[in-house]
Amino acid sequence: MSSQMTIYDISKKAGVSIATVSRVLNGSTNVKPRTRKKVMDIIEQYGYKPNAFARGLGLNSMKTIGILCADASDLYLAKAIYYIEQNLRENGYNSVLCCTGYEMQSRKESLNLLLSQHVDSVVMVGSNFIMNNSEDNQYVRDAAATVPIMLLNADFDCPNVYCTLCDDYKATQDATEKMLASGTKDILYLYNSNSYSGLKKLAGFQNALLSHDIPVKKQMQQCFKGSHEDIDGVKNFVEGLYKKGLKFDGIVTSDDFLAIGAMNFARANNINVPGDLQIIGYNNSILTLCSEPDISSVDNRLEDMCIQLVKTLIGTLSQNEMPQKTIFSGELVKRGSTNF
After folding, report:
1. 154 and 245: one domain?
2. Is residue 333 within 8 Å of residue 297, measured between CB atoms?
3. Is residue 251 within 8 Å of residue 273, measured between CB atoms?
4. Residue 337 within a domain
5. What CA–CA distances, in Å, run from 104 to 97, 138, 205?
6. How does the average pLDDT of the chain come out, rounded?
7. Tens digit of pLDDT for each residue in 13-27?
């Protein structure tokens, strides 16, 4: 039993937090005697021996954080990695990056590789690491039994998992409602992912319509399955819908590259933006300034989220009780592609 025992198991059996177990093992005085005895009794009963690296205990720390990301060529993910690495360095930590792609097997292998390097914690960048099917998230639970797991822009309720995210649901709902309030009636929603974040944005769009008594039509929610670099593909995708007779005077998107593709569609078809067609992007990336007019976009506070994630991470490794979930509010940055 002892070789399989983890801090997570001890915390569960003793009914205390992982941070409390860490404090007991670390000889911290900041633990009530009764709590210390409860934890020590469990440790003795099961013959638990701390890992030689004592990850998360502040002993012999490797001062290295593993970072997982699906695709570092994605503008949003690349910027997140930059902010996180920068903040980790400022706090005296190195990082090891693995780009996993989107396949489950590759994710698991990359995570195991990082854990075998005895990293102090793993940061998962982007909502695609959390799946809709609970069983598919077992690999995250298993990893969290050995090191703190930090999730950027995903929500997962599990001991030793800390989530920093933007309220994508409300941000998309608010942006859609602002477009509706300006007189736009037929809004096409363009998205590119069924990830946790992607589904939240879609639900936010749908709720905005419902709160204005507008029926949610399947044909007005379109998923572009191509690459985030295929802006021409987005243009052709929207053009295809338009030529089939789909009518829309507004386009709300889940990512700025989709908004750029929509803008290129409008220009190619001599549609006036924002006079006859309003367009909203998401992420407030540099892409919003790469068209004429500039594109209105939801700023999901990426830099603030990354700073908070590192703050939570450093606090957790210092055995402080940290919030398991921090939620930021996104806000619409208005530019020339909307007229409100």
Report:
1. no
2. yes
3. no
4. no
5. 17, 11, 28
6. 90
7. 888 887 787 777 766
